[in-house]
Design brief:
Elements: H1 3-11, H2 14-38, H3 41-61, H4 68-91, H5 95-122
Helix pairs in contact: 2-3, 2-5, 3-4, 4-5
């Protein structure tokens, strides 16, 4: 990992870290789709694994003690997306990857809006 990226992560606020994980997952799924189209199986496998791991990180960031119902719903959604990644990987299908990419995009946008509103309220 390069020093700049490492410093960015170490200095980031928790909300920014979540945004970065969403972006990482989106990038990995996008790259997996490209590798699938181009028939590059090892590269696709790596990117699907990275997206799966990013979703596991998001799952681990949930705080059920703060919002039990929301954490349960988000956890179920992350589980669903991981299942779709597995289907895409084993069946070599683009549709599940496209679905996960779209869901991640919506979640990332929503998270960004929440972060912006929170920052405005604090300012």
């Amino acid at each position: 990992m390069n020093a700049y990226y490492e410093r960015t992560i170490l200095d980031a606020e928790p909300a920014e870290l979540i945004r970065m994980v969403y972006q990482r997952a989106i990038d990995c799924v996008r790259d997996a789709r490209r590798h699938l189209r181009e028939g590059r199986i090892p590269e696709r496998t790596l990117e699907v694994s990275r997206a799966y791991a990013a979703l596991a990180e998001l799952q681990g960031s949930l705080r059920p003690e703060a919002a039990p119902e929301l954490a349960a719903r988000m956890g179920s959604l992350y589980d669903y997306m991981q299942e779709r990644l597995v289907v895409a990987q084993f069946q070599q299908l683009d549709a599940p990857l496209a679905e996960v990419q779209a869901l991640l995009g919506l979640l990332s946008e929503a998270w960004g809006a929440v972060v912006r509103e929170t920052q405005m309220a604090v300012s």
